[in-house]
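[Amino acid chain]
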Amino acid sequence: MKPFSHLEIESHLNTWQLSTARCVYWVEEETLLLADLHIGKSRHFRMRGIAVPQQTDDNDLKRLRTALDQYQPQRVMLLGDVFHSDDVADDEGFERMLHDTRGVEWVLITGNHDPQGLHRYEHLPLQAFEDSFQLDGFNFTHHPEPVEGALTFCGHIHPAVQMHGKGMQSLKLPCFHWRKDLVVLPAFSHFTGKGMVQPRDRDRVFVVTPDEVIEANGFVAG
C-alpha cells in the first residue's frame, strides 16, 4: 500500500497533518487521531444473511497498519465507534495489532456503537474512557459536543460534502469539518454512510480524495 499524503495546518499553536488515510497526526504530541473504524460491520451484516465481503474489515485494518508504519505515533487516540456492534466486538486482527504495537499508547473514547461498560475492554492493551478525554487543553470525544475553552476533536457523523464539477457532475467525498471550537473527523472505515455537512461562515472544510487532502475554499454544496 502506497504512503498516504497529508495537508499540514497550524491551529491553536499546534501542527496537525490531515491525512488521506482519514486520520489526523498531531505532531507535537506524536499522536494519531481517528474515528469510526466500525470493526466487524461486514461480519455484522453477514450474520444477518446480507452478503458483504470480509475484505471490507481487513482492508480498513491494513490501512491503519500502514498509517501506523508511516506516522510512527507514540499514541493512538480512537474517537469512538471502533466496533460496529456488541455482537462483533471481538476481532482477532484488531487485537493482534494492539499486541504488536505495545510500544504505542492506545486510548479509546467509547462511542454509541461500542460495547457499553469499561469492563468490556479490560482484556485489551488500551485505556478506555467514556464520554471524553482531555490532553494539553484539547478535548477528545465521539459525539460532536464542544466544550467551552477547548478545541474538541470528534467523529460520529461521518462528514462529507458534495463536490460539483463541469457537465452537471458531482461527487460525494469525506471531509474534515474544522470549526472554531470543533473538528469532526471523517469515518476511518470506507464501509460507512456519509453525513452531509453544511459549512457555516468561517468553517473550514478539507476534502479527502484518494491522492490528497484539499481545502474546499467555497467549492462545496451540501
Summary: The longest helix spans residues 55-71. The chain has three helices and 16 strands.
